[in-house]
Amino acid sequence: xxxxSASSVSELRARTGVSMLACKEALDExxxxxxxxxxxxRKRGLAQAVKKADRAQNAxxxxxxxxxxxxxxxxxxxxxxxxxxxxxxxxxxxxxADTTLSKGVDAAQKxxxxxIPASVLKLGENITVGEVQEVAAAVIGSYVHSNKRIAxxxxxxxxxxxxxxxxxxxxxxxNPPYVYPEDVPEEVLIKERDxxxxxxxxxxxxxxxxxKIMLGxxxxxxxxxxxxxxxxxxxxxxxVEQYLGGAKIVSYERLVI
Length: 257
Hints:
By secondary structure, the chain is α+β, with helices and mostly antiparallel strands. It has 10 helices and 6 strands. The protein has helices at about 5-15, 20-30, 35-45, 80-85, 85-105, 105-125, 160-175, 185-200, 205-225, 240-245; strands spanning about 60-65, 70-80, 130-135, 140-145, 150-155, 250-255. α2 crosses α3 (about 35-45).
């Protein structure tokens, strides 16, 4: 049998929180079979973290790290709001965001594999990394809601960080799925057109008029769902696009737990 690889030992440790030596011994006994090694560790009463792996994670927090032209968002999930507010949990999440920003996603994943199992054992809940997003642009702005369950990063081609942050705050509140009207996918429009046709099927109007109404509905739908065209929450006399002046939104990430 080929010797157990160091990467397999590291993976087993990340999944169970057990020492490297115990993981290697279990993998040797299991002849490299990961699931069998976990079973061996559980029978020995060692693999506590893995016992929690199938429990639902409906809570958690979002973390953002940013500099002038780059930002990272990390979602860290847990089972309860109580743990999501724990100082150790918050420190891990922010640390992962900082690592993603400075060293990249792969480095953050390695960091998570080394730190999370011990936190699972300490806090008594299943904890995993959810989405991880990186945003790069000439100008970056971000916003994390006070409950840490909504986080937004906006990148602009020019303008100011304050403008980018204001737009991020707007997006946190209004949840636009797209940036510009032309970004709305055709498959989404097809479904909406079917609904509009059904709504107008009993209207006694010429076909040409009905077509104009359909075009008007489509234009309104595109604009209502596009960040750039929505009425700006801080000043609804102008759109987000008008608030930005000549700056364009080139990146937009919104995560929710």
